[in-house]
Specification:
It is a single chain. The protein is mostly beta strands and about 220 residues long. It has one domain. It is built from one helix and 28 strands. The radius of gyration is 17 Å and the shape is globular. This is Right handed beta helix domain-containing protein. InterPro entries: Pectin_lyas_fold (IPR012334), Pectin_lyase_fold/virulence (IPR011050).
Length: about 220
């Protein structure tokens, strides 16, 4: 059972004030709140529900942790993310939870993503337009996003879409370094308009990879 964040006065004020004071926010439902243009720093969310479309659109996020949280088909923009960790989190339904260009140190560990039966050919999803690692994660029917570096370590994904890098037709070009290790892919892995610098795959297996107009950095 979670409590609307607007009913947790101290936590709600902290999320709006842009300060760097450390705080742990537990068992909150973030859907009723609106957080636009503010930075989040040194926050830990435990057992919280994230939902809503556009109600979280941050300037930046740094030094934050999400533990045992649920992302219920939200559309959230976390701005430029620095040293942000998601541990044992779950997404349910088509979820967009991401950071912008220049994000670094973003880690999803022991997380599960359940977007549905198959992922759409989309460019928005879970991850960031910088450097992101997925470690010991599972997923089906979701879109994972990386801008300049993608590491997939000991994961099991089925029928996923990957939006890696950025081609010029979508804005400032980005080329990603990709490392996939000890991971298994079942169903279709779809690469949508990807732009990669290098790709290294080891100790991994896949049923089918579909390349939709992807390219390598010239």
């Amino acid at each position: 059972m979670t409590t609307p964040i607007t009913s947790l006065q101290k936590a709600y004020i902290r999320l709006l004030d842009g300060s760097s004071a450390a705080m742990t926010i537990a068992s909150a439902h973030m859907g009723p709140g609106a957080f636009v243009g503010v930075p989040w720093q040194n926050l830990t969310f435990v057992d919280c529900d994230f939902a809503g479309d556009g109600n979280i659109k941050l300037a930046s996020m740094s030094g934050c942790n999400f533990i045992d949280c649920r992302f219920l088909a939200p559309h959230h923009d976390f701005g430029v993310m620095t040293d942000v960790r998601f541990t044992r989190c779950r997404s349910v339904g088509r979820s967009i939870v991401g950071g912008g260009d220049g994000s670094t140190g973003v880690l999803f560990q022991d997380c599960g993503f359940e977007g549905g039966g198959s992922a759409p050919a989309a460019h928005e999803g879970i991850g960031c337009m910088g450097e992101v690692t997925f470690r010991h994660c599972t997923g089906r029917g979701e879109v994972l996003v990386a801008g300049t570096r993608l590491t997939i370590d000991n994961c099991q994904f089925s029928d996923m879409t990957f939006a890696i890098g950025r081609q010029r037709k979508r804005g400032t070009p980005l080329a990603a370094t990709v490392l996939i290790d000890n991971s298994q892919g079942t169903g279709v892995w779809r690469m949508v308009d990807c732009r990669m610098k290098t790709s290294h795959i080891q100790n991994s297996s896949f049923e089918q990879i579909v390349n939709d107009s992807s390219e390598c950095e010239a």
